[in-house]
């Protein structure tokens, strides 16, 4: 497989499938595109039908774009890995909270963009953004209370990959969080795949 991604410091959508593939030990070739390079549009057109990242090219040569579509495709193709929870009720809830992340939280995205190598406590904390954060905390709290952790549905899943860029935002902008949310954010940050992505972002910025 080949996975085309954008800058690790900024590309939250790229982070999601990359972290999932890394966590489950799936072999893939990374194709990194600097989204701010003069020829980025031409590069994107060559690797992605949508002209956006991420885009996965499967072993069969099929192009799959959009983070959630990529993760659904990989979960279906490698069903021996529990990328979604095995329990049907938990799986339905995991899909719901993942889809909510996929389509919602516009104020958080706009006012607290993912910038892993930036530290800007308090920036972007509009009332609307704080309402988004409160909803995210409610999702995390409910999932963790039911599963017992350490991740949203017990073991690391697509749902955790979907919220990993939110954790990066919380690390950057340091909004006030509950003890449960802080502990979960710390576990996600420390997970090997996420830590590797963060290291890659730091290397990009250092160049």
Entry keywords:
single chain, 207 residues, alpha+beta, Glutaredoxin, Glutathione S-transferase Yfyf (Class Pi), Chain A, domain 2, 2 domains, 4-stranded mixed sheet, 9 helices, 4 strands, globular
What's the SSE blueprint?
Layout: E1 2-5, H1 12-23, E2 29-32, H2 40-47, E3 55-57, E4 63-65, H3 67-77, H4 88-103, H5 106-111, H6 127-147, H7 158-173, H8 179-190, H9 192-206
Parallel strand pairs: 1-2
Antiparallel strand pairs: 1-3, 3-4
Helix pairs in contact: 1-3, 1-7, 1-9, 4-7, 7-8
Protein model, in words:
With 207 residues, this protein is of the alpha+beta class. The protein folds into two domains: 2-81, 3-Layer(aba) Sandwich (Glutaredoxin); 88-194, Up-down Bundle (Glutathione S-transferase Yfyf (Class Pi), Chain A, domain 2). Helix content is 57%, strand content 7%. The chain contains nine helices and four strands; from the N terminus they run E-H-E-H-E-E-H-H-H-H-H-H-H. The chain has helices at residues 12-23, 40-47, 67-77, 88-103, 106-111, 127-147, 158-173, 179-190, 192-206, and strands at 2-5, 29-32, 55-57, 63-65. It has a four-stranded mixed beta sheet with strand order 2-1-3-4, with helices on one face. Strand 1 (2-5), helix 1 (12-23) and strand 2 (29-32) form a beta-alpha-beta unit. Helix 1 crosses helix 9. The model has no long low-confidence stretch (mean pLDDT 96).
């Amino acid at each position: 497989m080949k996975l085309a991604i954008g800058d690790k410091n900024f590309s939250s959508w790229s982070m999601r499938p990359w972290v999932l593939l890394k966590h489950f030990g799936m072999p893939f070739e990374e194709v990194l595109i600097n989204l701010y390079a003069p020829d980025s549009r031409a590069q994107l057109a060559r690797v992605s039908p949508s002209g956006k990242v991420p885009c996965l090219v499967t072993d069969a040569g099929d192009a799959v774009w959009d983070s959630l579509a990529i993760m659904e495709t990989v979960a279906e193709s490698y069903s021996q890995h529990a990328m979604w929870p095995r329990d049907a009720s938990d799986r339905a809830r995991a899909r719901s909270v993942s889809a909510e992340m996929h389509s919602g939280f516009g104020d958080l995205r706009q006012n607290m963009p993912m910038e892993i190598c930036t530290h800007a406590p308090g920036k972007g904390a509009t009332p609307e953004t704080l309402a988004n954060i409160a909803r995210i905390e409610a999702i995390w709290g409910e999932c963790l209370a039911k599963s017992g952790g350490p991740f949203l549905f017990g073991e690391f899943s697509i749902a955790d990959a979907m919220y990993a860029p939110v954790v990066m935002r919380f690390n950057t902008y340091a909004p006030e969080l509950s003890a449960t949310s802080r502990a979960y954010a710390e576990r996600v940050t420390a997970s090997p795949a996420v830590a590797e992505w963060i290291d890659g972002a730091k290397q990009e910025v250092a160049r």
